[in-house]
Amino acid sequence: MEIPAHVEIGSGLQVMYRGVGVVLHPRTVIGNNVTIYHGVTIGRGDVWVPEVASALGGFVIHDDAIICAGAKIICARGSLTIGEGAIVGANAVVTKSVPAGEIWAGCPARRIGTR
């Protein structure tokens, strides 16, 4: 599990299966009562650009969100948020913000329901 010191984490974070394969970008903010399963990556979508030149703002995972096994949350420009109570399905590839209470899955991820 790779969680840089700059990551802000709220209370009640659950990292399942000891966080095997979890990688979080340093500009990640995690709210309260978030659940993250194994194999999740939250990271840059512009790795060919030097870090100092990246247009990435960061990531915000709001309260009560669930990020299922193998999900990839990738952003190259601006900020990407996972809304309050949202669910990101297993192996989903999220490239844009997920509104509160929605369930997203697929590659690329899209809304498949509400919670």
What does this structure look like?
- It is a single chain.
- The protein has 115 residues and is an all-beta fold.
- It has no helices and 14 strands.
- The protein has a six-stranded mixed beta sheet with strand order 2-5-8-11-13-14, with no helix packed on it.
- It is globular.
Mean pLDDT across residues: 97
CA radius of gyration: 13 Å
Poorly predicted parts? none
Distance, first to last CA: 28 Å
Keywords:
about 0% helix, mainly beta, six-stranded mixed sheet, four-stranded parallel sheet, about 120 residues, globular
Précis, in short:
The chain is built from no helices and 14 strands. With 115 residues, it is an all-beta fold.
Secondary structure layout:
Blueprint: E1 8-9, E2 14-15, E3 23-24, E4 28-30, E5 35-36, E6 41-44, E7 55-61, E8 66-67, E9 72-75, E10 77-82, E11 87-88, E12 93-94, E13 102-106, E14 109-114
Parallel strand pairs: 1-4, 2-5, 3-6, 4-7, 5-8, 6-9, 7-10, 8-11, 9-12, 11-13
Antiparallel strand pairs: 13-14
